Amino acid sequence: MALSGIPPPLKWVSLLVWFLLWASGIDAARVHVDLRSLLTDPARGWSVDTTVSFPGSSEFIQSTERWTIFRPPTYSASIRPGTEADIVKIIKLATSHNIPFLVRGAGHSYTTTIGNLRNGLNIDLSQFRSVEVDQTAQTVTIGPGVTMADIFDPLYNAGFELQTGSCSCPSLIGVTLGGGVGRLVGYHGLVIDALVSVRMVTAKGKLIEVSQDSNPDLFWGIRGAGVNFGVVTSATYRVKPLTNGGDVLNAEFIFSANMSSAYFRAVESYNDNLPPRLASITFIGYDASTNETRVSAGWTYSGPREEGLQALAPIFELGVPPSSLSMIPWNKLQASVGGGIDRLICQGNMIRDLYNLNLKNYSASTYETTFAKMEKFYADNPGGRNSVVGLEFFPNHAMAAVPLDETAFPWRDSTAYVNPTFIWAEGDDATKQAASKLGREIRNDFATTSGYDAPTVFVNYARGDEPLEQIYGRDKLPRLARLKKAWDPKNFFSYNNGLPTRYP
Ligand SMILES: Cc1cc2nc3c(=O)[nH]c(=O)nc-3n(C[C@H](O)[C@H](O)[C@H](O)COP(=O)(O)OP(=O)(O)OC[C@H]3O[C@@H](n4cnc5c(N)ncnc54)[C@H](O)[C@@H]3O)c2cc1C
Ligand SMILES: *[C@@H]1O[C@H](CO)[C@@H](O)[C@H](O)[C@H]1NC(C)=O
Ligand SMILES: *[C@@H]1O[C@H](CO)[C@@H](O)[C@H](O)[C@H]1NC(C)=O
Ligand SMILES: *[C@@H]1O[C@H](CO)[C@@H](O)[C@H](O)[C@H]1NC(C)=O
After folding, report:
1. Is the confidence at residue 9, as pLDDT, over 90?
2. What is the predicted pLDDT for the residue at 408?
């Protein structure tokens, strides 16, 4: 390790990075390969559609852009493969030269563990955008660059729907590999519950099929811990005929501070009985037009309007008229809700630091405490007023109907997720510090009433500072570690809450 000539503070950072790499079983020596000459050597024989870029170029910037720039990975090069065969070649090249890399679907993972990748290779899958609906088999097959937004129209137009994540911008495969939670988990299950098969390039550079019939053990593992084993080059899902002709009831409410407690009590009344087709994404946030903290509550019901209104009775009884109430076609829902808030949420390149947790208990008093703490945070930190606490109330009927042993996903009993999301501008260290303190505090507050004995968070939502047991589940880890040892013994796919090769 040649650290001489590096200023002392950086020396410590380098040492820390080295230690983290070493601790996660990754050889720090990998970092010192000349990527430029390796990737541009004509001997590589890349397909004409495969492009390589380096820091400073606009293609590199575009190809490595991320949703959050809080503790991002750093890259010395980026490659954008144009063919599946080139993905195989890239993995063989990277593994044979010990080049550390991260695969990029759409750049939305926010776990801080990916920041441990320094000067690595970015493998950008954004060119793989195909969406093929098979009307007869009732399946859809997609490429790894396909985002949620890409599938709505093709599926809807063919008369189908699929459970997805709740925003338009992440890659559907990226969301799938961690389990995939969204508004339809109560009714259709997790995204992995619709997964039929994937094609995957393994760490050994083999292209394989993974399904119930082909490598079933790995199929178990990729459904919940899927970023640990290889590059998924395509995925096939079972789709369902459109529910209620594709029309979803959407009801939105704004509750000012003086109504927030009443709203939280109404939510608490849904404890253990949120109807399977009902779902809410609620935000505690700052309203710059009134300078007040408020609650924005969005509710959807995937079914007939009257049925939905009935299911929403506890909310309507609060007497606050909805700010929006309409039936929206399933394919337009994400882009329409909250006056188009999806566009705002999906905006990339901002500092965002999240402290998420799974919940199975609705606790009005915890929401109230959080509301009061955010109110104080906004007052004390004007630079943090874009921060929000998201609350997803998702019934779990369909996801809990799948036996726990069937997939690696460990938390089928969750009925809600809290997403405290702190945002500040680069250089605003006071807000950064306040956010870091409050994020931990809110996460702790929720943990005490979550209904779980210990904090839990599924891998898509993990911050990366949680013990692996809290992410993957203690009961799942022995089998996951055996799979890791079999499929990726040298830890190439290990920057996203990497699994150990032995457990305990
Ligand atoms: C705005 C927003 C909304 C979200 N909403 C939801 C939601 O509703 N439900 C939910 O469950 N999660 C949600 N998430 C979390 C999301 O599932 C994860 O961030 C997911 O990892 C994003 O995938 P990506 O491809 O966009 O990100 P990337 O950062 O490109 O990839 C994420 C991880 O998966 C790996 N990966 C990506 N593609 C592949 C592939 N083809 N093969 C192998 N590995 C791959 C990458 O190496 C990386 O470790 C959301 C995140 C954001 C930022
Ligand atoms: C609650 O607050 C809102 C906005 O801040 C205000 O318009 C309303 O009058 C208040 N209602 C009560 C009952 O205090
Ligand atoms: C909100 O605060 C800003 C800045 O402190 C002030 O300029 C503005 O008038 C306030 N708006 C309202 C509605 O109170
Ligand atoms: C669930 O939340 C309620 C209301 O805040 C609380 O009283 C209760 O202790 C919580 N239950 C568990 C198991 O944490």
Report:
1. no
2. 98
CATH class of 246-461: alpha beta
pLDDT in tens, 452-469: 999 999 999 999 999 999
CA of 259 to the centre of ligand 2 (A): 8
Ligand 4 centre and the CA of 330: distance in Å? 34
Task: DSSP for 354-418, please give it.
Answer: E--EEESS--HHHHHHHHHHHHHHHHH-GGGTT-EEEEEE---HHHHHS-GGGSS---TT--EEE
Query: Is the CB of 96 within 6 Å of ligand 2?
Result: no
Compute, in angstroms, the gap from residue 45 CA to the centroid of ligand 1.
30
State the span(s) of the chain assigned CATH 3.30.465.10: 31-124, 131-241
Instruction: Give the CATH number of domain 131-241.
Output: 3.30.465.10
Task: For residue 234, give every residue at least 6 positions away whose Cβ sits within 8 Å of its Cβ, in sequence order, or none.
Answer: 84, 128, 130, 141, 142, 143, 144, 198, 199
Q: Please report which confidence band the pLDDT of residue 238 belongs to, taking 50, 70 and 90 as the band edges.
A: very high
CATH class of 31-124: alpha beta
Which of 256, 287, 291 best tests ligand 3's pocket when mutated (most atoms within 8 Å of CB)? 291
Alpha helices in 24-100 (DSSP H): 35-40, 58-64, 84-96
Q: Which ligand 1 atom lies nearest to the CA of residue 169?
A: 1
Ligand minimally distant from the alpha carbon of residue 264: 4
Pocket of ligand 2 contains residue 261 by CB under 6 Å: no
pLDDT level of residue 27 (50, 70, 90 thresholds): very low
Q: Worst-scoring range by mean pLDDT, 16-25, 102-111, 130-139, 457-466?
A: 16-25
Whole-angstrom Cα distance, residue 241 to residue 452? 35
Q: In the block, which residue shows the tokens 């007869």?
A: 136
Confirm or reject: Cβ of 498 under 6 Å from ligand 1: no
Q: How far is the CA of 101 from the centre of ligand 1 (A)?
A: 16
285 C-alpha vs ligand 2 centroid, how far in Å?
A: 17
With a 6 A CB cut-off, is 227 part of the ligand 1 pocket? yes
256 Cβ below 6 A of ligand 2:
yes
pLDDT for 25 equals 47
Q: How many CB atoms lie within 10 A of CB 45?
A: 9
Query: How far does the centroid of ligand 3 lie from the alpha carbon of residue 407, in Å?
Result: 51
Q: Where in the chain is the domain with CATH 3.40.462.20?
A: 246-461
Could you tell me which residue, 409 or 1, shows the higher pLDDT? 409
